[in-house]
Structures are given as C-alpha cells and as structure tokens.
C-alpha cells in the first residue's frame, strides 16, 4: 500500500515527482489551486494543456479523469490534472470525487512517480464539505496498491482545513 501523509502547506512548493492539479475542465488555468499551479509552473504547463485540448480533449477533460503534463517551473517532474465534481446536496457525486484520486494515482504510477502531492479536490470553489472531502480522499489513497508509487501527500491549505483533516484521518472508519 502507498503511505499517506497529511501536510499543511502550499501544493506548489511540494518537492515530489508529481503534483495533482484540481483543474477545471478547460485545462487552461483558473482560480484556486489551478491558477496557482499555472502561475508558478509557467507557460510550459499552459502550452501542454493547450496541445491536449487541440488533440484528445477538445471538449475539455471530463470530471473524474486525469492527464499529465510537464510541471514547468514547479519543484516536480509532472502535473497531473484532474477535474473534481461540484458538490451537490441533492445528488451523490462522491464516486466522481473518488475517481479523481484513483485516476490521478494510476497516472502517477504509470509515469513512474514515487511521490505525489494532492490538494483536497473539490473542497474549495466547488464547495465540497472538508470533512467528507478528506474521507473520500483517504478512502482511495489508503488502500491503493501501487507498482512504483511509495508516498501520497494530501496537502491541506490552511490551519483549519489541516486540523479537520487530521481529525478525520485519526478517527476510526
């Protein structure tokens, strides 16, 4: 199994093989994690995401899927872009959220990454409740059986989010 570590901090500063981007379907940058990764990673990331849009993902990357590009100027080799679902109180979209983590793990492992850093997907502008977002992430990360991947970091932005995540991680399933 992959080792899962919770880290409070900035995902763009993580020194890992792959950083996961909570992207929007356009793959062309945006706000939150996506905007920060594009800004700090530089134009190389945007050039590769534009090429992906021009070839395989003309309509954008579907929710729950993942695709890799260079990491540009980030302290990583790759950025794995995945599109999380928008939270809905009336429709269960948890399977799509778990698919983001599973797809990203598979891509990281296929790339040969030993370490990967994840943001808390969908917990920002997509309004997924933090406690459940952490539960969904850990339900996929903890049991993953990698070929090459050894460590997955769940990078939590802010003291409050990190405290909630630690509480969820320490509680019995």
From TrEMBL:
Residues 1-173 form the Macro domain. InterPro entries: Macro_dom (IPR002589), Macro_dom-like (IPR043472). Gene3D superfamilies: Leucine Aminopeptidase, subunit E, domain 1. SMART domains: A1pp (SM00506). Pfam families: Macro (PF01661). PROSITE patterns: MACRO (PS51154). This is O-acetyl-ADP-ribose deacetylase (Regulator of RNase III).
């Amino acid at each position: 199994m992959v080792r899962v570590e919770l880290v409070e901090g900035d995902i763009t500063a993580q020194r890992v093989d792959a950083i996961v981007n909570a992207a929007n379907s356009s793959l062309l940058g945006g706000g939150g994690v996506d905007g920060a990764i594009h800004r700090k990673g530089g134009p190389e990331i945007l050039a590769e995401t534009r090429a992906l849009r021009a070839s395989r993902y003309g309509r954008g990357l579907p929710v729950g899927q993942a695709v890799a590009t260079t990491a540009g100027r980030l302290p990583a080799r790759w950025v794995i872009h995945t599109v999380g679902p928008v939270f809905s109180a009336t429709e269960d979209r948890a399977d799509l959220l778990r698919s983001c983590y599973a797809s990203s793990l598979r891509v990281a492992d296929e790339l040969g990454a030993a370490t990967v850093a994840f943001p808390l997907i969908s917990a920002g502008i997509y309004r997924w409740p933090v406690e459940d977002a952490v539960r969904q992430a850990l339900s996929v990360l903890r049991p993953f059986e990698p070929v090459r991947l050894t460590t997955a970091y769940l990078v939590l932005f802010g003291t409050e989010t990190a405290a909630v995540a630690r509480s969820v991680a320490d509680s019995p399933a």
